[in-house]
Amino acid sequence: MNKNDLIKYLENLNINITNEKLQLLQKYCDFLLDYNKTTNLTAIKDEEGVYLKHFYDSLTINKYLDNVNTLLDIGTGAGFPGMVIAIIHPEIHVTLLDSNNKKIKFLEELIKVLGITNVSLVYGRCETYAKDNKEKFDIVTSRAVARLRILCELALPLLKINGKFIAMKGNITDEINEANDTINILNSKIIEQDIFKLPIENSNRENVVIQKINSCDDKYPRDYDKIIKKPLVKKQ
Ligand code: SAM
User: Fold this and answer.
1) According to the model, what pLDDT value does residue 150 have?
2) pLDDT digits over 17-27, tens only?
3) pLDDT of 68-119, one tens digit each?
4) What's the domain range around 193?
5) Which of 39, 145, 148 to mutate to test the pocket of ligand 1 (most atoms within 8 A of CB)?
6) Residue 86 neighbours by CB under 8 Å, 6+ apart
């Protein structure tokens, strides 16, 4: 996907991108590909791949971002989807969280290169961060980080009531069945499964949107070891 394709495809997502934001994306792409030559951040090594699989894909959740003030991206890596959203939506304060210091260092430098001010960085594990930041965010996102059941226990306590967690996935039917009890126990429900194909390469995508209906018990999220080994099961 080249820059002109991106402009065209973003119209389908209701985004009329300005020249200024396009220039920021181009700077992001150049900086990422250059940095990636010496520090492994992404398997995608060409500009067209970055535009399609990182920039466009990150913006497929655009329809859930109206009237949003605060967004957290768990396991953001080199900034996907959170940094792209911060560029397109300067009115949203975006927090990018990752447990890999090399990725946070890259993001620190990227923020300076882009000169954007609506992004905070957190280096650490989500289950630790969640303990002191409950009910803080309107939206939590996560792409390609863990199975849905695990992500739900990490993400849902961080949401305000009525906030939405958007899990960006490939094909995940079995993950939804596995996550149902966790979602119930955390007083939340699936409100949308947006199934679509990424343009040009036609690969499968699914954005699952889970809304928090009520507060989660304060004991969640549990330690990571427990989350992995003891899935939450609803008593009959
Ligand atoms: N979201 C980015 C993307 O789609 O390109 C990066 C995906 S990468 C495969 C997964 C990232 O999640 C890694 O950078 C890893 O350090 C981070 N991660 C995994 N578990 C985490 C946790 N419990 N807390 C914070 N970060 C985590």
Assistant:
1) 97
2) 999 999 999 99
3) 999 999 999 999 999 999 999 999 999 999 999 999 999 999 999 999 999 9
4) 68-229
5) 145
6) 92, 94, 116, 118, 119
CB 205 within 8 A of CB 60: yes
pLDDT at 172: 83
Parallel, antiparallel, or unpaired for β 70-74 and 204-212? unpaired
Q: Is residue 41 one of the residues assigned to a domain?
A: no
Q: Tell me the two tokens of residue 97.
A: 């969280």
- Protein residues whose CB sits closer than 6 Å to any atom of ligand 1: 74-77, 80, 97-100, 103, 125-127, 143-145
Total number of domains constituting the chain? 1
Domain of 190: which CATH number? 3.40.50.150
Q: Phi and psi of 98, rounded to 5°? A: -155, 150
Residue 74 belongs to a domain: yes
Summarised one tens digit per residue, pLDDT across range 169-187 is: 987 878 999 999 999 999 9
Q: Are strands 188-197 and 93-98 parallel, antiparallel or unpaired?
A: unpaired
Within a domain: 20: no
In a domain? residue 15: no
Q: What is the Cα–Cα distance from 80 to 75, expressed in whole angstroms?
A: 9
What is the rounded CA–CA span in Å between residue 80 and residue 87? 11
- Ligand 1 center to 82 CA (angstroms): 12
